[in-house]
Specification:
Layout (H helix, E strand, L loop, with lengths): L1 H18 L5 E8 L6 H18 L5 E2 L2 E9 L4 H13 L5 E3 L4 H14 L3 E3 L16 E3 L4 H12 L4 E8 L2 H14 L5 E8 L7 H11 L5 E7 L6 H6 L8 E4 L5 H6 L7 E4 L9 H14 L5 H20 L4 H8 L3 E4 L2 E5 L6 E2 L2 E7 L8 E8 L13
Parallel strand pairs: 1-3, 1-4, 4-5, 5-6, 7-8, 7-9, 9-10
Antiparallel strand pairs: 2-3, 11-15, 12-13, 13-14, 15-16
Helix pairs in contact: 2-10, 2-11, 3-4, 5-6, 11-12
Length: 395
């Protein structure tokens, strides 16, 4: 019995030694939903994160004299797997800090794990307001935009007196938070919200929900638009357009999206909205480098979430370089109010809720037959000071 207990103790000690970060390393866990409907988002985030580390460290992949080691986990977009993946990363792999994850429900499941282990989690690319709102804790910092930033920027871009808008949201935390924020922001523009509908992320038939939206708008005077808060493989605007909204004088507005979805926007010339990122819009050294390197290595421009992963990497390196430590108690005071460069320009972690404040971009869709996707042409940069982003943190 003594021999068996001794063997178990030695094995446990060996496992701990293997998992722990060496003194000359910083272990970073990258959690993403590589399997499932948000696979494209996850791949872009990882590509951007690795490129961002390279850029921020000037090619050394080291900060404060320590080599950055990335441990990757696939949560498949499932909250229970996300929670266990982050726990495993901290307890078994010895991760010092974590970045992730792709879906909002999965990210919400991870928040208490960071608090329990007293380690920093940089949220990218999940968007739901709850993450830096009522589910937040002091170990959470988010480089991704939140639902309010999406919604307020789109309300600024399309809202005006005489405009009637019906909203379709995906039926999860991301969709409900987005619609709530949009409603609040739209009320300040003079536009009228006449209806809101929700559908599951895996919806392919939008006939019923589409007809309800059309019926809500058809008898309204003035401009009539449908705006969506959506994440997933299916583009609801494309499906709704197949149902003949022009019969009712109904048009569309839309938030920015990844390039494969923008390809479907080619049927909507003149469509207006606001975007988090489009590679040709920002003009700064980080974006110039990202675009050039991404096109050289992948033979395509960087996409929506590539920029997000890059921003998370820049935040990570900036914080570690300033704090000279991976200890959360040393990182938190450094990161609160911290400014850092990204492909979108300057971001700032707001002290109250650790949300990254950042510019957004109002656009109008231009169709060029020589470009595979619709082009969101900049009509206005919506700057940090232009958006009154609510602080939803109750702590």
């Amino acid at each position: 019995m003594r021999f068996r207990l001794g063997t178990i103790a030695v094995a446990a000690a060996f496992a701990a030694a293997v998992g722990a970060a060496r003194a000359d390393e910083v272990k970073v866990a990258l959690i993403r939903g590589l399997t499932g409907p948000l696979e494209a988002y996850a791949k872009q985030t990882e590509a951007g994160f690795r490129l961002g580390l390279e850029y921020a460290t000037k090619g050394t992949m080291a900060v404060d004299g320590k080599t950055i080691v990335i441990v990757t986990k696939d949560d498949q977009g499932k909250p229970d797997l996300a929670k266990s993946a982050l726990t495993e990363a901290f307890e078994d792999d010895g991760a010092d800090i974590a970045v992730g994850t792709t879906s909002s429900p999965a990210t919400i499941a991870m928040l208490p794990v960071a608090e329990e282990h007293k380690k920093i989690l940089i949220v990218e690319p999940a968007v739901a307001d709850q993450i830096t709102g009522d589910k937040w804790n002091r170990y959470i910092f988010r480089t991704a935009r939140n639902s309010s930033q999406d919604a307020i920027s789109n309300a600024i871009a399309i809202g005006a007196p005489g405009v009637n808008i019906a909203v379709l949201g995906v039926d999860n935390a991301f969709g409900h938070d987005g619609v709530a924020a949009f409603k609040a922001a739209l009320a300040k523009t003079g536009a009228t919200l006449v209806a809101e509908e929700y559908a599951p992320a895996n919806t392919t038939d939008f006939t019923g929900v589409g007809q309800r939206l059309f019926d809500a708008l058809k008898d309204k005077p003035g401009k009539k638009l449908i705006w969506t808060v959506w994440a997933g493989a299916t583009n609801p605007l494309d499906k709704l357009a197949d149902l003949g909204p022009e019969r009712y004088g109904v048009g569309f507005a839309g938030a920015g999206n990844i390039l494969p979805i923008l390809a479907q926007y080619k049927r909507f010339p003149g469509l207006e909205g606001a975007a988090y990122y489009y590679y040709a819009i920002p003009k700064n050294p980080a974006n110039d480098w990202l675009v050039a390197e991404h096109e050289k290595r992948f033979h395509a421009p960087p996409d929506f979430f590539t920029a997000g992963g890059f921003a998370a990497a820049e935040a990570l390196v900036t914080a570690l370089d300033k704090a000279k430590s991976t200890d959360a108690e040393k990182l938190i005071p450094v990161m609160e109010g911290m400014e850092f460069d990204t492909p979108k320009g300057k971001m700032i972690f707001r002290k109250e809720d650790h949300q990254a404040l950042q510019s957004m971009y109002a656009f109008k869709i231009k169709v060029d037959p020589n470009v595979a996707w619709a082009i969101p042409e900049l009509t206005r940069e919506i700057k940090i000071e232009d958006m009154d982003i609510p602080i939803r943190n109750k702590r």
